[in-house]
Design goal:
This protein is mostly helical. The chain is built from eight helices and two strands; from the N terminus they run H-H-H-H-H-E-H-H-E-H. A two-stranded antiparallel ribbon has the order 1-2. Helix 1 packs across helix 4. The longest helix is centred in the first third of the chain and has 26 residues. Keywords: Plasmid.
Length: 196
């Protein structure tokens, strides 16, 4: 049976693991590199994702725009900043813990982006991501490409040489929700102990 001290230590370690991942996410979202998040940063992120969509694919472009806007609105609602305000790293951590990773907001923001991204990346429509399609995502989203091969192998759970929609969704859940620092999904945007 766990003692109170052990439970407290486990809770602290769980928070540390999530904060390490959210720290990497913050750095990636901070497109202006000024140490703060703004609506402009979220629009820039939406633009990066939208650039992956083929010409004329308004459905997925709109899905990216809407999901990133909802994410920004969650930050505004939970922090009390103005629409044109700035969100600090600590404020971002707090909203990620209490707002974005709650079931409904998570589906409306994170998973909406994932679903549109999977549709966009799966260029041949076979329902899975090849390594080439996955590497294309890394390149386009500004994630260091040297990590894409290792990440692909970790996320390809069944070792069949592709990442299914289910494997991709599982990776997303692990990145945002898991407190296991060894979960394969932590590699979603590269090693989470290295800057984005």
């Amino acid at each position: 049976m766990s003692t109170a001290a052990e439970k407290k230590r486990e809770a602290r370690m769980s928070t540390e693991v999530k904060h390490r991942k959210f720290n990497k996410l913050f750095d990636w979202f901070d497109q202006s590199h000024d140490g703060l998040l703004t609506r402009a940063d979220f629009r820039a992120m939406s633009g990066l994702f939208s650039a992956l969509a083929p010409e004329g694919d308004q459905e997925n472009v709109s899905a990216f725009e809407e999901a990133f806007d909802k994410w920004w609105q969650l930050l505004v609602a939970h922090t009390g900043v103005q629409e044109d305000g700035e969100v600090t790293r600590q404020e971002f951590f707090g909203v990620m813990e209490t707002g974005v990773t709650s079931p409904e907001p998570f589906e409306d923001t994170v998973m909406a982006i994932v679903n549109a991204l999977m549709r966009t990346l799966d260029t041949n429509g076979d329902g899975v991501l090849s390594q080439d399609e996955y590497v294309r995502m890394y390149d386009a989203l500004g994630i260091p490409p040297e990590h894409s091969g290792a990440a692909f192998r970790l996320l390809d759970r069944d070792g069949d040489g592709s990442i299914s929609h289910e494997e991709f969704r599982l990776a997303i859940h692990e990145f945002y929700l898991s407190t296991d620092e060894n979960a394969p999904g932590n590699w979603l945007i590269g090693p989470f102990d290295q800057p984005a």
